Amino acid sequence: MTCGVPQGSILAPLLFSLYMLPLSQIMRKNQIAYHSYADDTQIYLALSPNDYSPIDSLCQCIDEINSWMCQNFLQLNKEKTEVIAFGNKDEVFKVNAYLDSRGQTTKNQVRNLGVILETDLSFSSHVKAVTKSAYYHLKNIARIRCFVSSQDLEKLVHAFITSRVDYCNGLLTGLPKKTIRQLQLIQNAAARILTRTRKSEHITPVLRSLHWLPVTFRIDFKVLLLVYKSLNDLGPKYIADMFTEYKPNRPLRSLGSSQLEIPSVHTKQRESAFSYYAARSWNQLPEEIRCAKTLVTFKSILKTHLFSCAFIESALCNVRTDCTVFY
User: Fold this and answer.
1) Residue 260 DSSP SS3
2) Residues of the chain whose pLDDT is less than 50?
3) Are 152 and 119 in contact (CB under 8 A)?
4) Which residues sit opposite 33 in a β-bridge?
5) What is the distance between the alpha carbons of residues 312 and 307, in angstroms, rounded to a whole number?
6) What is the pLDDT of residue 237?
7) How far apart are CA 154 and CA 147, in angstroms?
């Protein structure tokens, strides 16, 4: 070897992707869908009940990838090669048994790009891990808040807390309120530390003064932003392929209003799917937001809209409470 690319060079990721290009040909040949990242590849497929033939293709694909790597002076890290099945509990048990018979050890949860995925996609383990990490950093921030300015303290909160709460939050659509509440309590605690608010004081005015969207609305913001990017050729094609423009059978006022077809679902769990949740949330937006000309404009008016929705709802709740006490 007479020359090479220095470690950390900007050319290294590009050249590595070119070097690994034959892997995509192996996956396509075995009819396996895939996503490739810097040094991580995710392959996946869909199964029908009692039809496990695609699993044979998956196992063959993994064997061919291993052989290709051996021929090209690479090694497949079997300790980090994880297999997981998603779906109905009974079907997942059958699929796991078949995979074990083919020498593929399955797991009940795996970590993918920092997100913990479980077979039932409840994200309870992921939320628990985020909560544990966030409270650890909150305690450290609280110890030094007397020694730093308010501006620096806010930077620390966003760097160590907000970034963790917001990371991949587009996956948390449709989760139970008790799960989202754990993340909301993190945001509440961060707001109290930043503003030195007592636990006995109501948190809603504090969040409003900081101009922080509650966690539920932050999730909606991320989802709607992904939809806007996808519809305007600014996002991944696989997300854009999930959406179909709404076209009524006869002339209606909704024609040309940038609405989307909402897929039909028959279970509560399927309402959490991104394709359903995102399309329904998009159609609920005012038309002037959906038809925003630029991404910057869309983000600005969307946050204003969600901010007003979040704190108008809380104000209405307070009014109802006051009325109850009065009577």
Assistant:
1) strand
2) 1, 319-327
3) no
4) 44
5) 8
6) 85
7) 13
